[in-house]
Structures are given as structure tokens and as C-alpha cells.
Amino acid sequence: MKALSTLKLVPIVVIFILGCNKTSSDLIGLWGNVQTPETVAFRADKSGVFVVKDRPSLAFTWSIVDNTNRVRIDIDFQGKIRTLTGRLEGEEFILEGTGQQATYHKVTQQP
């Protein structure tokens, strides 16, 4: 009986683990800004890059915040780490700044 109870828990644990990684896998790919000629690429290795037309690219690392749809982006800029936050909402990635936000739509699955 105890073995049967343990077997019933296995699918629940697997679903929980997969569910926690859903935001991460949905985020991976190339996203285009809906208002400016800018893209942001999120890679599976938790690295990424912002590319803005006629500007240097900005590399970053990213992580999911506490198994939510929130994303932390750390950019090494002029020797200091700058942190941005964003969130995944359906088919949109929304980057939040000081009183501003930028919306991105997915262009490709894998950058």
C-alpha cells in the first residue's frame, strides 16, 4: 500500500517540476521590441543579449524569480551590474524600468 501511495506522488512531483520550468522554456528564443528596432535573445544557458540598431550589443545573464513569470536580467555595464526585471505574459515579454516598460513579441524559438 505504501509503495502505491509513493507511485501516485511521482506524477505530481514531475508535473510540479515541469511546471516550474515552463516560464524558462517559454522565454528561450529571440524577441522583437514592438516599438523600436531592438531584439533580445534569451538562451537556454541563462545568457542573453540585447541588440539595438546602431548601438553596441549588451550581454546579460538571466534567471526566473521564485518560480514565477518574473525574470531578473543582470547586465555587466561599465564594470557594474545593472539589474532589470521583466515578466512573461502569454505571448509577450514585458521589460520593466524606472516608470517605463517595453513590450516584446517572440520572433524565433531558439536564438
Can I get a quick summary?
The chain is 23% helix and 49% strand. By secondary structure, it is of the alpha+beta class. The chain has an eight-stranded antiparallel β-barrel with strand order 1-2-3-4-5-6-7-8.
Structural notes for this entry:
It is built from two helices and eight strands; from the N terminus they run ααββββββββ. It is an alpha+beta fold. The chain has one domain: Beta Barrel (Lipocalin), CATH 2.40.128. The protein has an eight-stranded antiparallel barrel with strand order 1-2-3-4-5-6-7-8. The longest helix is centred in the first third of the chain and has 19 residues, at 2-20. Residues 1-21 have low confidence and may be disordered.
Please outline the helices and strands.
Blueprint: H1 2-20, H2 22-27, E1 29-33, E2 38-42, E3 47-52, E4 58-64, E5 70-77, E6 80-89, E7 92-96, E8 101-108
Antiparallel strand pairs: 1-2, 1-8, 2-3, 3-4, 4-5, 5-6, 6-7, 7-8
